[in-house]
Each structure stands twice: as structure tokens, then as C-alpha cells.
Fold this protein.
Amino acid sequence: MGPKITFIGGGSYQWGPKLLVDLADTHSLRDAEIVLHDLNPEPLSRMLEFVEHLRIGRTIDWRVSATTDRREALRGADYVIVCISTGALESMAVDIDVPERYGVRQSVGDSVGPGGINRALRNIPVMVSIARDMEELCADAWLLNLTNPMTTLTRSVQATSDIETIGLCHEVTMVQFHLSMLLDCDMRSMDVKVCGINHFPLIAELTINGEDGLALLADKIEDLDQFGSEVLHLPEMMGGHEASTAGGEFSKAGLLNEHQVKLELFRRFGVLPAAGDRHLVEFFPNFLTEASGWGRRWGVHLTTIADRKTWQDHYIGELNKLMDLASVPRQPSGEMVAAMIDSRLRNKPRSFPLNLANSGQCPDLPYDAVVESMGTVDGEGVRAREETSAPPLLAEYLRRVSASQELVVEAALSGERQLVFEAMLADPLASTVDYDQLWKMTNEMIDASSPWLPQFS
Amino acid sequence: MSARITILGGGSYHWTPRLLSDFANTPSLTDATVVLHDLDMAKVERMVEYGAQVARQRNITMHVLGEADRMRALTDTDVVVSAFSVGGFASMQHDLEIPAKYGIRQPIGDSIGPGGVMRALRAIPVVQAFARDTQLVSPDALFVNVSNPLSALTRTVASTTDLRVVGLCNELVGCTFVLSLLTDAPMHEIDPTVAGINHFPMITSLRIGERDGFEMLRELLDDLDGRGNEPIWMTPPNAMHWEKVSPGEAWTKADVVHSAPVKFELFRRFGVLPGAHDHHVTEFMPGFVNDRNEHGKPWRIGHYGLSGHVSDAEGDERDFVARLESDSVTRFPSGELVANLIDGLVSGVARALPMNLANAGQVEGLDDGVVVECMGIADAEGVRPRDVARAPGILGEYVRRTVVAQEFTVAAGLSGDRSLVLQAMMADPLAGRLPFESVVAMTDEMLAALAPWLPQFASA
């Protein structure tokens, strides 16, 4: 009998289908039990139909069920995948709109900045209660967190529970994929050493077939005239690029245009930040400025709630398409959940970018803070792979964000507004607001989010 | 023991007259030998003349002499006081005016911020040379730095020599005076615990006599409409630049609170009292001074600007002339701590005073070796920190961030590495908030404008 894999937030159109396809295509999981839990029964039944469709098409022996009873879903689970969003887009509008009135525009608003802080305040009590239920119902299960803000949510569980908790994010993988296109190499020939925080991880070393990949990259970007017009063929799933190609073919220069911020930092400091620029800029006060057209000069677009609604519709449309196909395509998502579980079950060691408590893998950051680095998963479990340092200034930027994140977790657990204010004062983006205004903004955000912030009532 | 004290920058109108009268007012120092060295020996001659006048008027054996040769001035001395600046107002103009073009208004501009960074870059090679020479000819001397940026310069000496070094600043004395006015306690009964850095020192607990001073302060702040109307025991000196808002004739406690709104806001909110003037504190917390609040208007933050610094210097010169014309030596202590500290060393009677020292654990949460401001003891053994404390929460985090910026500044000043200057700017609370392209452009522009005073950057 295979493992019991429970999805909390199993009605997620964004995460559910791709993770389920990955699981279905992982041989060691063909006899798994899949349990979908969601507060909302409507997407849940749709997703259940999809799992059945997938199971039958793949002729695998999954036992599949869906429930709105979280305790039932957790009982006896081996892996708990958490992809929730407390209050969904309605609550997220507060994260974006209120700061904008105070002069802070966020390109994503889900990791740091005032939006990321407020999102953490909503999600942390839920995460902590999931972990508490797990202690009772499946104490040995792994909690695989895919929910943002990844660092603070993962940290909140680690601060309050003994449940093994790992934060998983695809940003490093995506950057590796782009590098493989830019440098014409196979992703599997590539290895990275990473230190940092989720959405602000730094590739401090890159080897490609044993060669210094960062040196190759440095040469390449100085030689743009030579290769910039080379055409790239992107997988269809990377739809984000379609807009930027706008009629023409997608070129290497076009790809570089999407990475202006990380390449500027790479030129100055010698390490390559390994997340989308739209994430990176939120960790600095210097890019999302009025002077830069709120990031436009750097090629960063501000994701709006309307964009997210469009994405949501897109995910639903994609799911409908999959349901119409007799057989769901075998398309790896680039997410790590299935491969990780496989590595553990078969004792087949693999490296992944992982968000774990710092036990020395990121010596620039405090112990116990949640950090992103390369980790190893095998039959023994999960652990950081090596120690990696950041160059001094970026190490300091990481520490500043980490300090804010520690305050956020404390604030969310205690329900103290004062601590939220301190977290805002420590946050690079939020602290650009005038002191008096920042206090007002903090309270306005908390008050506007009151349906989702019981701990502050 | 008769102390030998060398003042580098001994022609300073600001420092030397104050130190000489303080020495004359300190029984253990009335027989001291004071050696004045300066690039401008004409000014030193005037100070020597003033020193002779002090000795004559007080009938003491204090001997003040000038020495144009730096090595000779430093030879076999007990205490070196370093009191200088490089480039004067011609350079300081750039410290203030270039950042202003980019939207940064620095209330003072001599400790951190882009101006403080550049001021440090100018002075670091000089203080490094002073310290190196001191090490050669008086390795046991105590090196006392009173020049700004105090932390960066003290750190330079600590990190490049084995000398004993301390940085002294009068801001906490000013804060003690404020607390004395608000609590009616004599200044000597006011005993803070301090954990922070110069111009951003955090008082983390406070004893006033046998009482909890923070409790006394909270009681007053909670009752400004009542107890705030009590008169203060002394009309504040004009130099405080305070604003009286109460209707009556007498200055009240509420007037004092009104005059330091940032300090008391931070105390109310975070339970920690910054022990420096609001003008300094706000340079570490740009939330109080920014383009959205008319650069600090609601907090009554004035901006010194170049004219403020020039007018201070003119005041110093006028004050010196008045001293020369006076037939007695003032008994009023200057508020500076140099004489007090040397008295501890010479008399062996332990003196507790705020000091800037290399961190050896006295400020928790900061790395060893960085220069921190704390309460210290000066006695026959030398100087050492007195307490162990930690600045809590966000204020501790702001202290930590500034220390990091200062470490970049010192490394840049010593190495002449432009990339380190950029990193110092990016880590700085004021400069680091600018758009990225502006931080880069402003750094380049300041380095270019200040090149005459930055020989270490010449080759780049």
C-alpha cells in the first residue's frame, strides 16, 4: 500500500492539476492514496473528477477521495501538501490597494512588503492549526508547504510544532531553466549552490558540466550583440513569454529583458539572484520607485488583482481542456513535490532548492530562520546540502528581510499590532512610507482584513 | 602623576578652549602638560596664548604648548585627543547639497547618511595616520576620538592599531539634562543603561536615584495636561534651540517634551529612549524625515544646512574671543566628557560616562569589534564597558543595520574601493532608499566632487 498524500487546499486550480499529474507519472506513487481537502466543496468536486479522469487514463491504482473535513483528511496521512489562500483574491485586494494609497506599489505582494506581511498574518494561524491537527492525527507526516508567503508560513510551523515542514518553490528551477536556454545547456548538466530567502535566493555558484557557469554567463551578457537575436523555442506552458514576443519570435535578448534586475545585481555583486525579477524587486526599496515607472524601467510589471482573476480563469480553462482529452499529457510541471516523495520512498537521493530552518547552510542569516538553499532528500529524510555564503551587501539585505519576517511570525502568533508595525518598519518596501503614515497604513490593512484576522480583533 | 595630553587639531576653536577650561576645572589635571598640534599653527599660537592666560588666571601649573611636528607632539604622551575635520565647509557643502539634489535632506549630515559617509571617507586616512604614529611613539597612550563621524573614525583606530581607543560624544549629557528637567532629579543621580551607536544610542533602562526613571517618565508623559504644566528648574540655554509653546512666563515640562517629539514618540511606542537629539536620531530613521512630510516638519526637525554649521563655527570663534577678553576662567563645565575621562585615569577614581568602545559583548546582538556606544568606566586601569544590554525590537534592528553600513564605510575609507562606497550607501538608511540608479549616480557624483579630499580614491 502506497503513501497517503493529502492536499489541504485541494481545490486549488493553480496547484492541483499539475501536482496531481506529477504524482500520477511517478512510478513509486501508483498505489498512493490521494485525499483532497478544501473548505469550498465546489472546486473540490471538480478536482475529484479530474483525479478520477487522470487515474483511469493512467490505469493506476490510486484510492481517491475528497472531503471538507480537515481532520478526516489528515488522519493517517504521510504527506500533507498545503496550498491554501485565506480569503483568496478578496483579501489580497487589501494587500495591494491599501499600500498603493500610501505610495507603495507591489509587483506581486505575496512574499514581503506590506502585502506579504498582511498575507502572512492571515495564513499563519491556519498553517499553525494544520500543524497542530497533524501532531494529533499524523505526527510523522511531512508538511510540504507551497503557500505564500513561503518563508513566514514555514517558519510559523517550525516555531510552534515538531512536524517536519519543508517549503517548496519553483523559482530557482525556473531560473535554471532560463539559464539552460540562454547558455544552450541541459538543465541536468547544471548544479547550483544557493543561499538566501524564498523569492530572494542567490546562486553563489553555478557549475555546468564542471565549468564555472557564472563566468560563462558574465561573458555571455557582455556579448549581447553577438547572440541576442538567437531564437528560443519555449514550451507552451510558459505562456508568460507569449506577451513579450508580441508577434515576433522569442529571442535570447527578449529573455534577458525579463531578468534586468537580477543581471544588474549579478554584474555588481557577482552572484545571481534566482527568482523572477517581479519577486526580487520587492526585497529592495530601490526598484519599485516612481522614478522607474514603478519598475517598468526594469521590465517589471505590477501584477494586479485583475491579472490574477485572468490567471484563475486560465487555470480553470486549462483544467477543462485536460478533462476533454482522453489521456492527460505527461508533462512534468517543474514542481518538486512528486520527485521529493519519490526520493524518500525509494531512497534515491536528489537535490532540490528547499526552504528549511537554518542550521548553518546560510551562515549570513540567524539560526532557525527559514532559509532557501539546496537540500538533499533520500530515505533518511531531508537536510540542507552545503553551506553557502552571500556577498556582504546582499547578505545584509537578506538579514533585513529575515528580521522583518521573524517579527511577522511573532505578530501573527500574538495578534499584536505593535509587532506588525515593527515588521513594517523592518521591511525594505513598507518602511519607505512616512512613520506616521506607516502606522495608519498598518492599522488600515489590519482593519480592512478583519474577517480573516481573528487574532487581531 | 602629571598627565601629558596631546590634542591633534589643537587649533580648533570649538574644542581646545572648552577642553582647556575643563582641565583647569578638574583638580587632577591642573598640572597637566597639554601639547597642541595642528596643520594651522597660527591658530595653535592663539590657543597657547589662551592656555597661558588660563594658567595665570587660575594660578595653576597647567602648561600648554604648541608643536608643529606631529611625531614630537605624540611622543611619550598619555592621552591623544583627536579633534579634526578634513576639507572644512568647502567639502561639507558637497556632503549636504549633492544628496539634496537627489531628494535627501540631512538634518545634520555628519554621522551617517550620504554626507556622513563622505565625511568619514575624508577623515579615515587621516585618523589612521594619527593612530599609526601614536602607536609608534606612545603605544600605551589612550586615543580619544571626538571627531565625527565618531563611530567610523573610532572604528578605524580600533581596527588598524592595537591602541586603546575611545570615542566621546556629549549627546547623552544633553539627554541627561533633559531628563533632569523632566524629573527634577539632579543630573548626577540620572544613570542610564545604554546600548547603541553614536548619535543613535538607546537607553534601555534608567535609574534615577533609587527609582525607575522610565516609570517616572511614563507618569509624566501620561499626564502632560496636568504635570506637564510644572515649571522646569532651569530656563534652557539658547543653544538648545527649543520652542516654548506653553502660555505662561515659565518654561514647563510640556515645553521640553514638545521640543523632542521623536525621542518621546519612540519611547512611548517602543519603551526605549534614544539618548541623542532628534536631529541626529531622525537621520537613522528616515520615516521621520522624508519628502512626504516636508522633511520632518510635523516633528519640528530643522535642517542645519551649511549655514547652520557655519554659524556654529562663527559662534565658536566669538566664544573664544570672549574668553580671551574675560578676566576669569569659566567654571561652567563644557558638557564634553574628555576631562572627566582623563580625570578617571589620572586620579584613579572611577568615572562612569557614555563611551564609544569596540564591542566585547556589552551590546548584545552586535558583532564583536564594531564600535558601540555604551556606559563605560574610566579609572586607573583604563576604560572599559560597564553594562551588558541589548536594544530590543525594531530599534535594535535599526542599530544593527547602521553598524553594517558603517563597517562598509570604514572598509571603503581604508581601501579606496569605490564599490565599497556604493555598498555603504546602499546599506545606509537614508541613501539606501533612493532609486537604484540614483544611489549609483549620487555616489559617483559625490566621489567626483570630493576628489580633492579623497586621495585614496585617486587611482581608480
In short: Chain B touches chain A through 30 residues (CB under 8 Å). Chain B has 16 helices and 13 strands.
